[in-house]
What does this fold into?
Amino acid sequence: MPKVFRRQDLTFKKRKSRAPAFEWHMSSRLGKLVNSKYLEFYIVSLDPGKYSFPYHFHRASEELFMIISGEVTLRSPEGFEKVVKGDIIFFEEGPSGAHQLYNHSDSPCVYLDLRTIFGIDVCEYPDSGKINILPFMEVFESSSKVDYYKGEQNTATKWPKKKQLKAKRSQTIKRK
It folds into this structure.
């Protein structure tokens, strides 16, 4: 069943941040209100002098913004560009879809933020070298990246001997 969200009926709550430059006002997560399976969307009001999220890109999510009112500066791998009311901006997965908004104007900028969700996403922050596992908000420093097989050199010591495996095929084997 279609659901119409009327702008005048939306309430905005301030999204507090330990970094005040990243505080903005957000509507409810509208996708959750309609049990959306693959879309997360909400309306953001970005005050003058504020940034959207830190500069980032998604590994498993596409994102789209539509500027409803006002104007902001978009930062992307191509540089900086002013976007205004009516503009629609699409961000693909991966580093080429990196983005951030900054409200350079004297008035709030209101925009629709819509992204796909298919379970777990990895969000990377090139400026600060972080990786965020979404939706869990588990943030790690990318400098701790290691080889896939690190620590796997002694795997055989965790398994029972070959004779034990053959003898007890249908039983649970306890390691000694």
In short: Residues 7-147 form a domain with the Jelly Rolls fold (CATH 2.60.120.10). Helices lie at 30-33, 162-167.
